[in-house]
Design a protein that fits this description.
five-stranded parallel beta sheet, about 160 residues, binds flavin mononucleotide
Length: about 160
């Protein structure tokens, strides 16, 4: 069995979660790589692919969208994401729905999803009231607990294959 953990991350939050998930995968061969470094053709030989991204403007970063559209050979997929506004604000769920729609359109089996807050590291974003207001949630995230949970997510999903 081969598992890939692949991710897009601009300021490192999603990358930390990717590493946590990777650590949790206990079965078979495993590989971790940035989206930009993975040949989507290679994924057809995988049994499970974890794809991670930061939520951008309530949706998927364009790099992630086009990767998912091109990754039509994935059989089993799990998604993970980081975000900085509370889920209730609807700026997060849209991204998950968008990802699931593309992946289901490719006939992939969606095994689960994992999300957590990520510290805002971009100055221009800190000027947005919505982001500033939720600082109590995203400050110093992902933290140790998030990484532990990510590891457990990796372990649990990969044990189902
Ligand atoms: C251009 C941009 C748009 C963003 N839009 C959202 C958003 O709509 N909702 C949200 O919760 N967080 C949003 N964020 C915050 C990021 O999702 C969050 O900080 C994430 O953890 C960054 O992950 P990274 O460090 O892996 O790039 C945005 C960040 C950027 C840079």
């Amino acid at each position: 069995m081969t598992t890939y953990v692949t991710y897009y991350s601009e300021t490192g939050n999603t990358e930390k979660i990717a590493k946590g998930i990777f650590e949790g995968v206990e079965k078979g061969e495993k590989e971790i790589a940035k989206l930009s470094d993975i040949d989507s053709d290679k994924l057809k030989d995988s049994d499970l692919v974890f794809i991670g991204f930061p939520v951008h403007a309530g949706g998927l970063p364009k790099e992630v969208k086009s990767f998912m559209k091109g990754a039509s050979s994935i059989k089993n997929v799990a998604i993970f994401y980081t975000h900085s506004s509370p889920k209730e604000m609807k700026m997060v769920n849209g991204a998950i729905k968008a990802a699931e729609k593309i992946l289901k359109g490719n006939n992939a089996e969606i095994m689960g999803n994992f999300g957590c807050f990520g510290t805002v590291n971009v100055d221009s974003l800190l000027k947005l009231p919505m982001i500033k207001q939720s600082e109590e949630f995203w400050k110093d995230r992902p933290n140790e607990d998030d990484l532990k949970n990510a590891k457990e997510f990796g372990r649990e999903i990969s044990s189902k294959i």
